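I wish you would study the pair of lines that follows with an eye to the fold:

===
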Amino acid sequence: MTTTSPNPTAQDPIAAEAPPLALGAMSFGTTIDEDRAFGLLDAYVAAGGVWIDTADCYSFWTDDSGRGGASELLLGRWLAARPGARERVRIVTKVGCEPLHPGSYPELSEGLAPEVVRRVAAQSLERMGIDHIDLLLAHRDDRATPLGPTVEAFAGLVEQGVVGRWGYSNTALWRVERGAAHARARGLVGPSAIQLRYTYLQPRPFVRDHDHDHRFGWITDEVLDYAASNPGVDLWAYTPLLYGAYDREDRAISDAYTHPGTTRRLEVLHEVARELGRTRGEVVLAWLAGGDPVVRPVVGVSSTAQLEAALSGVRLALPPEARERLDAPW
């Protein structure tokens, strides 16, 4: 078993008391313009929200330049325009997926060489006008770079005080544990967060995320067991609402979830949502945030109504009987 330090989030009273929902800022500054993004950020913080999730590469695929950075730059402008906001929010950002040049992703991206990790961290600090990053994630694995020096680079940033904690996204669990073991053997700060795709519906075995080239971008039962056995490791779930497909007729559920288990799960989800007078998406978020281990949803929204629904979902305490039905075997 991996030995970890006590959960850093639990030691942070602001983060510990916040609703277990991270606001995804991926589209801020590109498909969501500044005025609307500022309004969503203001509403999120006014509702007690704390965690804001971004990355150095967001959103290169929708930016005319083919480069990332718009999201971090917008967050920097919002923080500058909101004195005192920095003390109330916690920033998650990532390194590893920015294209080496426009159009080169996924074949060529910046990767996780130690000098890249340090340079991108400094770049993110400058873009957002902050003096530290609360959580820095390796956005995807980089098998071309030795794992040890990358771990040492992340741990060094924590030791310097410019990063509060670090972790992994879209990385095979054995690689996460190997990174943790390297840190442990050298007395370094190890990873304390894993961010992967997760929702109530479960994909078929061997389905891969071809849209983003994240082969290991899924929370599996093994990942849940790992987090449950390592109390210092947080789980974060992106795409928890399947782009609105639970509640919107114009959004289709991905073929990755096409199997008999999905049919049964959707039936139970619909029943529970109807009985509780909630939307299916709210029940999904409640199921994630109230589970054991807790999985923090990262939700991207484009309207205050969507934000309010997401906050309502994570604050919903599912009756034990409802959770038992939702958790029943397929």
Observations:
- The first strand starts at residue 22 and ends at 24.
